[in-house]
Design a protein that fits this description.
The protein is of the alpha/beta class. 29% of the residues lie in helices and 24% in strands. The protein is built from five helices and six strands; from the N terminus they run βαβαβαββαβα. A six-stranded mixed sheet has the order 1-3-2-4-6-5, with helices on one face. α2 links the parallel β2 and β3.
């Protein structure tokens, strides 16, 4: 797994300035559609006004590693690919609270570093870490996330601007396209 991190910082005024926010694009940009979280985060970064007070990062990790990156923020928006279910279409967009998602590890191992994010957040809070109370998840339905490619499939690529708009709406910062 590549542990890459792209830090992009910006600032917002008003209510958002009072709530320290992080947007996290999750995935691996060399595994095709698994890199969609990064692409959406990069698009959101372009749309944020220069004075925004929002950190935008791209990460290839979860569990404890992701929890550590959320320390000090009051709000987080996570963007990631998700495995299609029977009635999903490739490129469909899911918007949920982290607390509404199943709490399981994608790696199904006994390693503490791969524990579910919900469990990692509980653990962090029990140790006194300041972690977001509000965590939104924006997911894009994908089919193939384990093929080496730096490009997204056409339907997942088409979802990027729509998902970026959803993230901007979640921020309360809609920009004109």
């Amino acid at each position: 797994m590549i542990y890459a991190e792209t830090l992009l910082s910006t600032t917002l005024s008003g209510k958002e300035a009072l709530m320290k926010t992080i947007i996290v694009g999750i995935g691996n940009p060399i595994l095709g559609d698994d890199g969609v979280g990064w692409k959406i985060a990069e698009e959101v970064k372009k749309q944020l006004p220069p004075e925004a007070n929002i950190d935008v990062v791209c990460l290839s990790l979860g569990g404890l590693g992701l929890m550590e990156r959320l320390i000090g923020y009051q709000r987080a928006i996570l963007i990631d690919a998700f495995a299609m279910k029977e009635n999903d279409e490739i490129g469909s967009i899911l918007i949920m609270k982290l607390s509404d998602l199943p709490s399981y590890s994608a790696y199904h191992t006994n390693s503490m570093k791969n524990i579910p994010l919900q469990t990692a957040i509980e653990l962090g809070r029990s140790m006194g870490a300041q972690l977001p109370e509000e965590v939104d998840v924006v997911g894009i339905a994908t089919e193939q996330i384990h093929e080496f490619s730096e490009t997204l499939s056409p339907r997942v690529e088409d979802a990027v601007p729509f998902a970026a708009r959803i993230v901007m709406d979640l921020l309360g910062q809609r920009t004109t396209a």
